[in-house]
Amino acid sequence: MTETMTEVATDVANGVANGVTEVASGVANGVTEVASGVANSVTEMASGVTNSVTEMASGVAEVASNVAETASNVATVVRHPLKSLVSKIWEKIQEELFPTSVKIILALGGIYVGYKTLRISWNVWSFLSETFISGYDLQKRYGYQSWALVTDATSPLGRAFAIELGRTGFHVILVGNNFNKLQEVNDALGRLRTKPLSRIIVADLSQAYNDEFIEKTFAEIRELDVSMVVNNFVNKINGDFAQFKDTEIRNAVILNNIVPALLVRYFANLMAKREKRSAMINVTALGTVKPSFSTALYGGSQQFVDIYSRAIVPRFSDKVDILTYKACFIDPSAENKVNIFSTTPQQTALACLDFVGRRSETYGYWKHRLLGPMYWNYPNFRRFSDWLMIKTSQEIKEKVQKPKKSNILKHNYQ
Predict the structure, then answer these.
(1) Contact criterion met (CB below 8 Å) for 331 and 399
(2) Using an 8 Å Cβ cutoff, are 252 and 237 in contact?
(3) Averaged over 188-194, what is the pLDDT?
(4) CB of 131 closer than 8 Å to CB of 157
(5) Which position has the higher pLDDT, 122 or 83?
(6) How many other C-beta atoms can be found within 10 angstroms of the C-beta atom of residue 197?
(7) What ranges make up the beta strands (E) of 262-312?
(8) Angle at CA 410, nearest 5°, toward 404 and 414?
């Protein structure tokens, strides 16, 4: 029995010990959790306080910056009230107008650049096409075995036109005032492979001011089928205009003005009655581009032909191809020095015939079509080219006379 009571006491003691242990463990866990919660709460509160303080400091700094800027603006306005007002007005104008003005300027600039580009491209294309693409078949366009009339056929350019037209297949009418020289050109035509027919008309066209002179002079060829006229009869009078004689001035005006006008009127009316088209080449001079005292009478009279020839194009364009050729730098002598500007009469005649029906005016040979605009636009180039031509061409050198200095007339050479 004693043993039984001892076992019971032991069991009771063990149970109490286990209970006390569990209670102690639970109390310890509870205390730990409470302490952890308190620690977390304290940490969160400290973090919140720190963030709040930081935000408040940032706000204070921003407010201080705005206050400083405002103070600076106020100080500026106080120091420079007019400057500040003008500055604000200018800024407003820029905001309202600057974008629009920029757009307008860019648009106008684009239009100008586009126009210049198109114009340059067109000029380059025209030059290349006219240089490397052949012109019309003149016989086919104006009539096979028709006649071509060339005035001043004994001059180097007139002779070249006559021979090239005969070589093309036209019969040729030679007009001049010297029968022997006309006969020489006629003989040259007879040696051509095409064997063209020819007529010679000896006429002093300085008498063209007389009534019905043109009709009487060309009455014998009225029945011929004249399809082309080369109006080449010009009086190349150079020198001091103040020293010219009355007869020289009168003949120059008659040959350079009256004769071309009468010839164009006479033959254009005849050509308008033909079934096929016709052509007319009116020879003027580069002197029509810019005036010069030494060529005052010649250049002035040739300018009349230039304007007259181009003005009548619309009137006869349905039946007649009218070409104005501005002659320049033609060196008739093969013995003269060669220069970069000059061409031979044969080159000039071929170039002009190549442009008939394609253009209403031309400078002729390809390099003259480059030089013509430069001669027009650049005075220094004009002076240099004139000097070079006189220097290298003996024939031109002998004809050119510089006017003497005068107290009455002061000359401006160009």
Answers:
(1) no
(2) yes
(3) 92
(4) no
(5) 122
(6) 14
(7) 278-285
(8) 85
pLDDT digits (tens, 9 = 90+) for 330-369: 776 644 455 677 788 888 899 889 989 888 888 888 777 7
User: Which residues lie across from 149 on neighbouring strands?
Assistant: 173, 229
Note the residue count of the chain.
Answer: 414
- Taking the C-alpha atoms of residue 190 and residue 227, their distance in angstroms, rounded to an integer, is 21
Would you state the torsion angle of the CA atoms of residues 34, 37, 41, 44, taken in this order, to the nearest 10 degrees?
160
Tokens of 6: 């001892």
Assess whether pLDDT exceeds 70 at residue 64: no
Distance from chain centroid for Cα 148: 36
**Hey, what are 323's tokens?**
């070409």
Taking residue 314's Cβ as centre, other Cβ atoms within 10 Å add up to 10
β-pairing, 147-151 vs 226-231, is parallel
State pLDDT tens for residues 226-261.
999 999 876 667 666 777 888 888 888 888 888 888
- List pLDDT tens digits, range 262-302: 998 899 889 988 999 999 999 887 766 666 655 677 777 77
Query: What's 339's DSSP letter?
Result: -
Partners of 147 in the beta sheet? 171, 226
If you write DSSP's letter for every residue of 25-64 in order, what string do you get? HHHHHHHHHHHHHHHHHHHHHHHHHHHHHHHHHHHHHHHH
